[in-house]
Structure formats: C-alpha cells, structure tokens
Amino acid sequence: MYRLFLVCFSLLPLAGFAAELKVKVIDPHAAVVAGAQVSIYRDGSATPLAVRLTAGDGTARFDVDSGDSFEVEVLAAGFAPERADARADAAVQTSTLTVPLRVEKVSETVVVSATRTPVSDETAGASVSTLEHGQIEAMQPGAASEALRFLPGAVVNVSGQRGGLGSLFVRGGDSRYNKVLVDGVSVNEPGGTFDFGVVPLTGTERVEFLRGAQSTLYGSDAMTSVVQVFSQKGSTLRPELRFGADGGSFGTAHGDLALSGARGRFDYDVFGDQFNSSGQGPNDEYSNSLQGGNVGVKLRDNALFRFHLRHSNSRTGVQSFWNFNGQPLIPPDRDQLARQNNLIASADLTFNVGRWQHHLTGFDYNHKRLNEDTTVDAGRVSPLFGNIDFPFQTASHVNRAGFAYQGDYVERSWARTTFGYEFEDESGRFGDPTVPPLSHGLRLNHAVYGQQTLNWRRFSVVAGGRFVHNQTFGNKVVPRAAVGYQLWRGGQVLSGTRLHFSYAAGIKEPRFEESFANDAFTLPNPNLKAEENRAYEAGFQQNSLNGKYALTATYFHNRFSNQIDYSCCNAIFQGQYVNVNRSLAHGAEVELKGNLTSRVLLDGSYSYTSTQILDQPFAFDPLLQPGNPLLRRPKHSASLLLNYLGNRWGGNVGESFVGRRTDSDFLGFGVNHAAGYVRADAGGWYAITSRVTAYVNLENVLNKHYEEVAGYPALRANFRVGLRFRLGGER
After folding, report:
1. Contact 194, 165 (CB under 8 A)
2. What pLDDT is attached to residue 156?
C-alpha cells in the first residue's frame, strides 16, 4: 500500500506545483520598459489573476501553477497594447516570456492621464496628445513652452524673450485653467497660476496633454486642460553617463549631465542642466539651472517604491511692454527682474494584491517668486497713468504638501474601477517684502473621487465623480461622463469609425491674492466661490490603413461662470475680489496623426475657437466689455509636427500658426490686438559614433517678426549647435 501511494503521488498533475512566470517588456529597439502594467489571464478567461508593474529591469514576476497556460496583456504609455500567450514550463522553476512593444497604430497608443490608469487613447474618452522622448530629444527645447506650442489645441503666449512669462490657453479658457503635474505632483500655484517659460524638459520621458474639463480626476485648476510631465527611468545594466553642451546665437550656452542605470532591485536617473542666454535686446538675459533625480526600488515582486526630486532656479530680465509691431512706443524697462526657485519632491509606493493595485504618494512642492525693479527708467510714460516705472518688489512663497491614495481594481479585461483620496495643505505668503507684514493664506483641502471604465465590444464608457472640501469655497461635487461607440469596424483602408461624447464640470479655486490679500489697496474675501466650467464635447474618429492614421474632429462648448474680478473701490480706495464674470467659448478641433512609416510620425491640427464675454461689470477697458471676445484667444490656430526617429539620425520640423487676436496694452496707447503669425522650428541629431552625437536646434527659421503678447517682441531666427556623449550603458 505504501509503494502504491508513492506511485500515485508521483503521477499527480504537475500543474499543482508552484512556479514563477517572469514577463520581460522591451521596446522596438530591445531596450527594457519600466513602469508597464502587466496582467495575466487563464486561457479563455476575462478575469485577471494578477496585475503587476515592471521594475527598472523591465520585468514583472507572477507566482503561477506549473504547466498552466496564460494570456499576458501589457499596457505601456506611448506604445500599443500588446497580448501574448505564455506557459509555465513544468521542467523549470522560472519561465520567461519576452514581450516586444509596437508603436505602429496611432489609434491604439496607450496614455495614462485620461483615466489615471493605462488605456488606449481611442477608448480614453478624452482628447490626448503626447510628446515622446525621441521627439523631445530631437526638438531640444529650452523650456516647455517651446515644445507645447506644436501640440494640437495649445496656444502658447510667451512675453518676449527666453524665460519670459509663458502662458497656455486651451479651448478658450484662461491661462489659469490648466492643471500642471510633474510625476503626479501639482505644480500650479493655488488658483492655477503657472509659468511654462522657465520649465526645462531635461530628464523627461514623455509629456501628455489632456484637453477638456478634467476636475473629476485632477481637482482644482483642471478647467480646460491637464499637462503632465513624466521623468525618465534608468534601464541599463551597466551605469550610463550622458553629457553634452551647445551654444548659439544671442549668447546662448547650454550644458547637461545625467547618470542612469538599473541593477538588481534598483533603478536610477539623476540629471542636471544649465541654460544661459543674453537675449536679443536690453535686459533680455535669462539663466536657469535644474537638478533632479528619479530612483526606484523593487521592494518585492509586487511592490515598487519610487522617489522623485526636481529643483530649478531661474533669473529673467523683464522688458515689460515697449515695442508694438516694430514701433518702440516707450523705452524698455532696463532693470526689472523676475526670479523663481522651485523644489518638487515626492515618494510613491505601488503594490499589487491579486487584481488590486494600490498607489500611495507623499509630496511637497515649494515655490518662491520675486519680481523687483530698483531704478526709475526715464521715458517710460503712458497716456493714462503718466510715469509707469518706479521701484517695487513683489514676492510670493507658496508651499503645497500632502498625500494621496489611489486604488485600482480590475474586474474584467474590459472593466476597471478607480477611486482615491487626496489631502493637500496649501500655504503661502505674498506681498511687498519692503512693507511688512506679508499677507498669509492657508487651506487644508480634502477630496475623494471614483471612476468606472468599461470597454465592452463596440462601447466604451467612462463615468466618475469627485467630492471636494476646499477651505475657501466649501463643498463641491464634480461629475464627468464620456461615451464612445464604434460605428463601423471597417477594413484595412478605412479601419474603423468611432463616435464620442462627453460632459464634464471643471472647478478652479481662488488664488491666494484673491482670498487672503490684506494690504493698503485690497481687502480679503474668505467667501469667494470656485470658478466653474460646464463643458460638452462631441465628435468622431476615423482610422485608416489598419490604424496607422487617425482623423479626429471634435466640437467643444465651455461655459465659464463665477469668474473672479476686482471690485474697486470704497471710500478709502480699497477694493475686493468677487465672483461676477461669465464667459463662453466654443469651437472645433481637427487633428490628423499617423505613422507615415515605422520611423516617420505626423501630427497636424487646426482649431477654431469663438469666445465671448457675457458679464464683466467692473471692466475698465473697452475691450473687456460684454459681447467682446476674450483677450489673447485667437479664433484660428494650427500646428504641425513631423518627426523622423532613426538609428543613426533623427529630426523634426514643427510649425505653429496663431491668428489675429484681441489684446491690450492697458496703458492708453491704443493697442487692441496682436497680429497673427507663423513660427517654424527644426531640430535634428546625427550619431557620429555609437558614443558621440551631434545635434542642432533652429527656432523661428523663417525669421518672422511677431509678438505672442502685444508689445513684447519675440526672438528672431536663432540656433544652437552641440555635441552629446555617452559612456557606459549598453551599445
């Protein structure tokens, strides 16, 4: 009997023994991909057994039954979704499956920002555009403003030279209606203020640009767009040192340095960047230094810890309004300066338990800004106010700190639930440091949100809501719903027609200056409401040539209310910010993107935006009266970005067209518009050897004389030429 028992035991199916399945994810160039989401399913099942994220070495590991067969799904931002079959080999303890990713179908590119989880942009329920690492590397932008201008629907206004105040206008919204995130951390000042002109993209893996009201997932300030920057991760077994330098016109000098790698449980990428330029005119100097790092640790097969750090310090000369359409109306300000000092730090812990993924984040963002003018410049006199140049200082010191939890539960391959909680401590001091005390503001904000995503056959549904408790405006519920339907599957030539519709609400909290200012001219108003947007959009997407091309047309309608304006004045000339203004913006976006070849990428777009001021009781300028269009929002804008990403060389050509738009000098010179313009840029690189690369960057190659902001002349044609070197790493 004993011998019979041993024989029977030895004949038991090997599937009953534990084994390990290792999934390694690589890109089309065989480099490992970190941060990809890997799910495994039993054959024929739509319910995942487990979900993991790939570590710095590009691998995710699963405990499975030996001898069983599985289907593996990989979702990685910037690539198409990929599925592969796997089997846990009974003869070995660990079975390895390598999954190569593709980028052939633009309609299937995976994005993250639309749902806060990886999903193909076709079913994301939102309009999303991206800049990938290869595109950024060919473009070599000095700041984010120089790259974002070539994305569909983005209107970028920089006040003159490099380092000038860079504002983003999307779908007719205000420049404060954009939520900006760096590695998941909000870097807006409370109330949405953000300067894109001093944000280097060194160390950036990709940028996602999400259009439309997105406050359900991202809270305050996401009224018309979300811009999210993702940092690079180390991926080479041998440490890799990268460094380079370039120089060019207008006394420009730039250098960068980075060290990265992945070994064992660790991956890392640390970097530094220094940019200097003297500019094309008086008081045009700009300097910016950046340091940062991204370090990941694989604590267990199902747990990853990651730490991000970025610090930047900039100094910019400010000419102020002076030259309109080539006519110097007054002399430039020769001594005004703007300084910024920014520090971003975050710690993330992601761990998976079966179909659950939990993400915990602690963060801190510290922002210091100082504008000062030390000398009275002769001749800076306006018709309305007389002398407008006088010594002053304005300072702002803002800190945003807190923690967040996000949970994701994958019910089926076609269903996912996302929910989370956020706490944020916003504090700030602002005013004139020469006339203490500074005004002080403090908000302790809480929010919970939930979202359900369904992709069932021809239908896709994204529905969610957020409950916000803000210490200024109180409680608010913010809903969003998006529906997509594949009207026609099509064939290889016309490969699918998809309709989409969404409704969303957007909110923006007041700025600290609006809620808490308490000085000789402004009274605080602790009862300000949130500014709001009711946003609709509807359109279609037509894919062609088996998904290599996608034509999208979208109609959007934004209705802004409770907009904040300054009410002046009482008997002692003090005013207060109040919710009184309303405005409207609607129009259409058309985008064509495609892969001309496996290495040539095209993204072109046209936007029509009609805006109107509905109510503005305290308008001090005739251009701000009801019935007029909103300032600096062009009716017509377009962009084109063409990239070639090869092995030995790469390059891009970008063009942006911005039509005539209403603008004002606010000083009495009679300026009421900014002329339309076309700006063309080009960039490229060539690998002299596997370790040495030459590159060139050309901006405004047509040498157009134009102004993005009336009275602030933009840079004429300019260039930078340099070399990059690489030591270590894989060849």
Report:
1. no
2. 96
